[in-house]
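User: Teach me something about this protein's shape.
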Amino acid sequence: MTWLQKAAWTWLFSCTFLLTPLLAQSQDTGPVSSGWHYGGFLDLGYAVDFNFPDNHLWRSKTTTTRVNEFAPNMALAYVKKNISLSSSWGMELAVQAGYDTDGLVPQPVPEREKPISGADTLRHFSRANVSYLIPMGKGLMVTAGLFNSYIGYESIYAKYNLNYTRPYIADNAPYFMFGLRVRYPVSDSVNVGFYAINGYNYLSHINDQLSYGTQVSWKVRPDLTFTQNLYYGPDQANTALEFWRFFSDSILEWQRKPVVLAISYDIGTENAAEQVGHPRTFWTGAAFNARWNVQGPWSVALRPEVYWDPDGRITGSEQLLRAITTTLEYQFVREWTSALLRLEYRYDESTGPNGGFFKGGEVAPGVIGLVRGQQLVILSLICSFDK
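Assistant: First, the predicted structure itself:
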């Protein structure tokens, strides 16, 4: 076991054992003390795939992968302490389970991906970190441990997104990171962040070097925000600088009730160290999000998207993916509990030498056939409590 793996295990289990009594105390004493919060949610879904694949799988997807069957996609429980005027330190601890956590563990790829020891257990931790606010200027926030990724507009948790299913650009970018995060508000409209992390995929260990990231978030005006995220680091066994991965994630969001509009654009590139001649590979994608709160608990959302992986570097297949998703949502809220009921229609298309989605029947013994398009109707229920 490497020093990085030992550090991960030590940090996660130390947080678990040290903070569990605090969670129990906050529950036993009734109202949560100032700054402390706890909660959780259960995400259940059923996706009807009209291709009716025999393996019940959604190809090229890492979340909501199960189709034509009842799917407990995510369950989460958390406790956290927010930083306040009376206390400069905070923490987060969260555990999770469900089909959506399966894709967090990378598949072994020679010279590129190697799951860390115990990855199948560590995927059940979503946050385990401690933060401290240094009284410097406007306040320098330092966080160490396991935290949510700074990359991407959409979360792994459907509860926080405008649609139920996630786009390909979200599924193929990091959802979580392990390392150090530093944030500072340069002004009332500009925030910057710096990250030193263990890699693009936090549950992969292909080398012992750190990766780095930056974030700049600019509130152009009260209803318009632009965010630029960058990642740079070694994600192959060969850690020479020429093989480092560069990744850019750009987000523009406009919010003015009852409408939310956002566009995201990602592009990544790296030289393939394991291939003859070390060719440069790249991948790119974009998604447009639109949501309208029609009235009261009713909302509708629309998301067209595209993802191009011409070298098969990220999805494992040389393909161009296109999709459009429409969502009807009803939200029920009462005190500290809530429920989200969503009905979603989605059409996906995959073209290219290795593109396609699974269909019913085998083209050869043990080989599932592929088709170009896929239509899905998804019904989901997310029940949550936050206190």
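Now, about its shape. The two ends are 39 Å apart (CA to CA). Residues 3-28 form the longest helix (26 residues). If you'd like, I can walk through any region in more detail.
User: That's plenty for now, thanks!
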